[in-house]
Amino acid sequence: MGKVRVPLFRTVRGMRDFLPEEAELMKYIENKAREIAQLYRYREVITPVVESYELLAAKAGEEIRSRMYTFRDLGGRMVALRPEFTASLARLVSNKLRNKPKPLRLFCVGSLYRYDEPQRGRFREFWQSNYELVGSDKPEADAEIIMLTNSLMNATGLKNCVFKVGHIGVLREILNEENLKEKVQNEIMQLLDKKQYDDAIKRVKSDGASRKCVIALKQLMKVKESGVFETVKRMERQVRGFERAESAVKNLYEILELVLESQKIDVIVEAGFARGLEYYTGMVFEVYVPQMDTALCGGGRYDRLIELFGGEPTAAVGIAHGLDRITLAMQKQKTWTKAPRENTVIIIPVKEEMKKEALKISQKLRSKNLQVESEVMGRKVAKALGDADKRRISYAVIVGEKELKDGAVILRDLKRRKQQKVKIEKITETIEAANQKT
Ligand code: HAM
C-alpha cells in the first residue's frame, strides 16, 4: 500500500505565527501599552473582531474600505473583520456609553485585519493599542493624546522618534468655503495622504474651485521642514481670508504650544499632511523612526463620527499605536534584549520511584511563585541538566533517594555551577539568598 501524503499546512498569505520569543516581545509591548493606559487613566474595553460592514465602512476611507475582509455570515448579515478600533469605540459611545459623564477615556488592544500587500511592517493581521479621549474639543485633549504616545515610545526605549503633525481642519475649511462636496474632499484627502499633491490640486481645479483656493492649497503643500512655530506662522499667512481655516491654524498652534512646553518631543509640522481615514476633522499626527519608512502610530481629532453613528454630537481625539511596527523598530534599534534568567527551576527525579515526590515539590515551589518545570521525558539527571542549562533555566532541584531520607534534595545553581544539599522547606529561601548575592 502506498504511503498517504499528508499536506504540510502553512499560514495563509499575510498571516503570521508568533513563536515564543516573538510572542514574548509582542506581549511585553502590549503590557507597556496597558501600563500607559493606566497611567493616563484610560479604561480598557473589549469589542468584537466581527462588526457590521456598514459601521466599519462608513468613514474608513476608500483605501481601507477596499481592503476589508468582508463576508456574509450564515444569517445573511453583511459583516467584516475590524480594520481599526475607532469605529467600534464610536459605536459604543453613541449607544451603550451615551449617558456616561464626559470625558471618557477608552483603551483597546487587539488584532485588526486589512488585505494590505504583505511586506516588511505591513501585514494582513496586525495589532494596535488604541486610545480615545471622548467629550472634549479643547487643545489640551489633543495634547494629551500626543503626550501619551510619547510616553509609550519612551517606555519601549525607542529613540529619535519624530512626530509628524498636520491639521485636517485647515484643509477642509478651505474646501468648505468653496462648497466642495464631502465626497470630493475625501478624494482630495486620499490623494494628499499618498503625497500625490499635483493630482490633488488637479482634482480641486476640476471641481471648479476658485484661483484663490488653488493658490492657498498649493502654497500650503510647500509649508514644511522649518521650525515648528515658524511653520505654523507660515500656514497662518497662506490661509488668510479663509476665516475658519485661520482658526484651525490657531488651534494647531495652541496644541503644539501645550505639547512642547510640557515635554521634549521632536515635532515636524506639515501643512499638506492628510490621513486616509475620512473621519478626521482636526489635528492629525503620525510617529516615525529613522530606521523605517512606515508610520509606527497614527491618529487625530474626529468631532463628527459619534453623531454620524446616532450619538449626541461629541468631540473626540485618539491614536492607534501599531504594535507590530513598534516591535520591528525595537529590533532595529536593539532596544530589546533577551529576558535575563529569572527564578526558573527544573525538578528532576533521579529514579522512577522519586517521581511522585518530585511532583509534590514542584507544586510546593509554584505556590511560592517560582516558575517550575518538571522533567517529563524520563531522562537521566546529566542529560536533563544539560538541556535545562541550554534553555537558561536558573536552578535544578534533583530529587534523590538518599537526600529524601533526610527530607532534603540537591539544589543546583545552573548559573554559578554550584550545588548543595538543602532541606525541602528551605529551597525557596536558599534561592532567594543566592539571588541577593548577584
Ligand atoms: P491607522 O493609521 O490606519 O489609524 O493605523 C494606525 C497604525 O496601525 C499605523 O501607524 C501602523 O503602525 C499600524 N498599521 C496599520 N495598518 C497596518 C498593517 N497592514 N500592518 C501593520 N501595521 C499596520 C487607525 O487605525 C486609526 N483608527 C487611529 C485612530 C484612533 N484615530 C483616532 N483614533
CATH architecture of the largest domain: 2-Layer Sandwich
Quaternary organisation: single chain
At the first level of CATH, the class of the largest domain is Alpha Beta
CATH topology of the largest domain: BirA Bifunctional Protein, domain 2
Radius of gyration: 28 Å
Number of strands: 16
Helix coverage percent: 40-55%
Ligands present: histidyl-adenosine monophosphate
Q: What's the pLDDT, averaged over the residues?
A: 94
| Distance between the amino and carboxyl termini | 62 Å
β-sheet strand percentage: 15-25%
Major pleated sheet: 8 strands, mixed
Tally of alpha and pi helices: 17
Structural class assignment: alpha+beta
Shape: elongated
Low-confidence stretches: none
Q: What's the name of the CATH homologous superfamily of the largest domain?
A: Bira Bifunctional Protein, Domain 2
How does the SSE layout of this entry go?
Layout: H1 20-39, E1 43-44, E2 50-52, H2 53-57, H3 62-65, E3 70-72, E4 78-81, H4 86-94, E5 104-113, E6 125-134, H5 139-155, E7 162-167, H6 168-177, H7 182-193, H8 197-206, H9 211-222, H10 228-238, H11 243-262, E8 267-269, E9 283-288, E10 297-301, H12 305-308, E11 316-322, H13 323-332, E12 344-349, H14 355-367, E13 371-374, H15 381-390, E14 395-399, H16 401-404, E15 408-413, E16 418-423, H17 427-437
Parallel strand pairs: 1-5, 7-8, 12-13, 12-14
Antiparallel strand pairs: 2-4, 3-4, 5-6, 6-11, 7-9, 9-10, 10-11, 14-15, 15-16
Helix pairs in contact: 1-5, 1-13, 5-11, 6-11, 7-8, 8-9, 10-11
Bound molecules: histidyl-adenosine monophosphate.
